Amino acid sequence: MIACGLFGGFFILLLLGVPIAVALGLAGTAAIASAHLGILAVPTNVYAGIAKYPLLTIPMFVFAGTIFDRSGVAQKLVRFATALIGQGRASLAVIAVVVAMMMGGISGSGPAIAAAVAGVMAPSMIKAGYPRSFTAGVIAAAAATDILIPPSVALIIYSVLVPAAPATAMFAAGIIPGTLAGIALIGPTWWLAYRNGFGASQSKLPRPPLWESFKDAFLGLLAKVLILGGLRFGLFTPTEAAVVAVVYGLFLGIVVYRTLKPADIYRMMVEAAEISAVILTVVALASVFGWAMSTLSIIDPITTGIIHLGLNQYFVMGILIVMLIVIGTFLDGVSTFIILLPLLIPVAQHYQWDLVWFGVILTLKIAIGQFTPPMAVNLMVTCRITGATIESTVPWVLWLILTMFLTLVLVIAFPELSLWLPRYFGFL
């Protein structure tokens, strides 16, 4: 009965428009109080949920992403991508996907990248004749790859919750699937834009010089090499890598490009603090919900029931795919991991699935949910910036969802797509 109240209360609060973090905390607190488990367990779990050293990575990478966006790196990446792809029909749509992938190696949040890329690309795309709904859908889908391409907040949270999958291994494991997902999105994006003649008015615009634009973007692209190279050679931990990214970004913005002033840095710190506070508040209050589930023994019967159904492992994986894509449309990756990992990890261990590979699969599922209507977090951001409605994006994003789903199936069928790099770098 209390279990029904826990989940029922959570979904009722969501339907009433209560923020996800508050809904998780209130539902968990109500269940703890109803079961007479001791109300002091609430503040204890709130603190324990975020008192983890690896979580320091989150505010640092969020700050780094804000710095690279405001310092002009995003514009330089757009110019470089334009030099590679050219101008004309469908080009801006493809450029938006490429830029989102490039930015994905700097920040760690899908919604943050969606906001950054939409802020840079959306005005140009709309001016060139791309529909607002198409623009919002493409950028939201492209930004979803950011939770796979390291550094990733979702992969960091997974590594914290699953000690057998360290952050370095998860970062390496996400590179190839994240890149494949981005490349796969280019196909339907180009086809839809080209078929409908979007951007045809730009065909006569000159292409920026390739070498010159590469030189301008080189230092921004070097950030990814710096972060991943430092992790590969053991020069710093993921948390220290986040600090290195911040220092490097400030160096570019203040010394090299001279685009950042003290007032800009203050505003970026405030913005990064606000975004990080939202993420960590979700982590803290979701921990209360998760503790209630664990203490009330809600998870064990469900896990045992799934295992004893005697189903083929691929059939179970199919069920998890559908469940997580649906849940991903309503919840962010952090909440999904904290709530469901206690259920999912025993299932993975029963079928002897590699937990690093399993983490990438879960993250890919959540990425699809981030731009699947009706409650897709990335789409909410891009629709707000472009002025489109979520309903109007459906004809466009359905093609992108199908493409990302095919990438998911490919990674499931060939686990080495996610495991080869961690093994090569010695992280496994």
UniProtKB/TrEMBL annotation:
Residues in coiled coil: none
Domain of life according to the entry: Bacteria
NCBIfam families: dctM
Source organism: Telmatospirillum siberiense
Record-given protein name: TRAP transporter large permease protein
GO molecular function per UniProt: transmembrane transporter activity
Ranges for domain TRAP C4-dicarboxylate transport system permease DctM subunit: 7-417
Quaternary structure note: The complex comprises the extracytoplasmic solute receptor protein and the two transmembrane proteins.
Main location: membrane
Cell inner membrane in keyword set: yes
GO cellular component term of the entry, any: plasma membrane
Lipid bilayer topology: Multi-pass membrane protein
Pfam families reported in the protein's UniProt record: DctM (PF06808)
Alphabetized InterPro entries for the sequence: DctM (IPR010656), TRAP_DctM (IPR004681)
Transmembrane segments: 51-68, 80-103, 109-126, 138-161, 167-193, 241-260, 272-294, 314-343, 355-376, 396-421
Stated role: Part of the tripartite ATP-independent periplasmic (TRAP) transport system.
